[in-house]
Write a structure and sequence with these properties.
The chain is α/β, with parallel strands linked by helices. The chain has one domain (about 10-295): TIM Barrel (Alpha-Beta Barrel). About 45% of the residues lie in helices and about 15% in strands. The protein is built from ten helices and eight strands. The protein has helices at about 25-35, 55-70, 85-95, 125-135, 155-170, 185-195, 210-220, 230-235, 240-260, 275-295; strands spanning about 15, 45, 75-80, 100-105, 140-145, 175-180, 200-205, 265-270. The chain has an eight-stranded parallel barrel with strand order 1-2-3-4-5-6-7-8, surrounded by five helices. The protein is globular and about 55 Å long. The two termini are about 35 Å apart. The structure holds flavin-adenine dinucleotide. The site of flavin-adenine dinucleotide (FAD) has 24 residues, from strand 3, strand 4, helix 4, helix 5 and strand 6.
């Protein structure tokens, strides 16, 4: 079972990839995954493009990763633009290709639209997709998304929490958080989840920043607040990509070390198809855990 990875003291990591556009990108991705294998991931996931645009690619990548590296894999799946029949066919294909888990999502409205319009023969919310998987494809373990800073369309924090509980009650075994940069947001949200009776592992999603432009765009898209001090530091050298990457990696390292000291069950890294930053963060984490152990003796 998926949640078995998250045993106390184990601290499993998972890595999220996205489908590259070209064959060259795919070859480069496999080299990055090879590097990441050093960190013994519990599983590797691949995103599903907006509007189902990477439907076939997502499955192709997870199948390839599983075949080459013999690691469990999860395909992301959104309900955007799909009928229930389409979703069933994706899930059947995923099972056929040996996919282990599904990250079950609603997805975002298409670019330029602010409200999500479900396919007339499709599903409205992620909890319905979780139900579908549990009822008809029960071999597939299910992960869902959670929002430390509240999903931008949720009418209230409580409504968002009720939704997360609905997804877990429908059979999700693990919650992976949206990226965030203030650990205090994560801790406050985790406490609320626990009070709401959500007992499955709640795994922080870590995003190593590697460019100022990219993080401004992403934070804007997903509503994550960037601490002023971090933004100021990144802005000191607006054109220097190496600076952004080293500031971003150092920041994520601090975040991760603090999260470990505060009892998180594991980590999900948004690796953005680049192994280097995540590798450095995990090496810093190993050092941090070693010195914690030495201090405890
Ligand atoms: C770990 C992770 C991975 C992701 N991977 C992808 C990906 O691969 N591809 C992609 O396109 N996007 C991805 N996303 C983004 C995600 O699709 C968006 O955040 C999307 O807007 C919401 O998806 P969800 O599954 O959380 O939706 P839901 O859980 O369905 O929630 C959507 C909104 O509806 C509200 N809601 C839910 N149920 C009800 C109800 N019954 N009544 C009223 N309101 C309700 C919720 O509070 C929320 O505001 C990912 C996000 C995360 C955190």
């Amino acid at each position: 079972m998926l949640s078995d990875f998250y045993k106390p003291g184990e601290l499993p990591v998972s890595f999220e990839l996205y489908p590259p556009k070209t064959d060259k990108g795919l070859r480069s991705l496999m080299l990055q995954v090879e590097r990441l294998m050093k960190y013994k991931p519990a599983y590797i996931t691949c995103t599903y493009g907006a509007g189902g645009s990477t439907r076939g690619k997502t499955l192709e990548i997870v199948e390839k990763v599983k075949t080459i590296f013999q690691v469990p894999v999860a395909a992301h799946l959104t309900v955007v633009g799909s009928s229930v029949a389409d979703l069933r066919s994706f899930l059947a294909e995923a099972e056929r290709r040996g996919v282990d888990y599904i990250v079950a999502l609603r997805g975002d409205p298409p670019q330029g639209e602010t409200t999500f319009k479900p396919n007339p023969n499709g599903l409205k919310y992620a909890n319905e997709l979780v139900e579908l998987i549990n009822d008809e494809f029960s071999e597939l373990g299910v992960l869902v998304a959670g929002y430390p800073e509240v999903h931008r369309e949720a009418p209230s924090p409580q409504a968002d929490l009720d939704n997360l509980k609905r997804k877990v009650d429908a059979g999700a075994q693990v919650v992976v958080s949206q990226l965030f940069f203030n650990n205090s947001d994560f801790y406050a949200w985790r406490e609320k989840c626990e009070k709401a009776g959500i007992t499955v592992p709640i795994v922080p999603g870590i995003f190593p920043i590697n460019s100022l432009a990219q993080i401004s765009k992403i934070a804007n898209l997903c509503g994550a607040g960037i601490p002023k001090k971090l933004l100021e530091k990144l802005s000191q050298k607006p054109e220097d990509a190496q600076w952004h990457s080293s500031v971003g990696t150092a920041y994520a390292s601090q975040q991760v070390n603090d999260l470990v000291d505060n009892g998180v069950p594991g980590f999900h890294f948004y690796v953005l198809n680049q192994a280097e930053a995540t590798g450095k963060i995990l090496e810093n984490l190993a050092e941090h855990r070693k010195s914690n152990k030495a201090e405890a003796k």
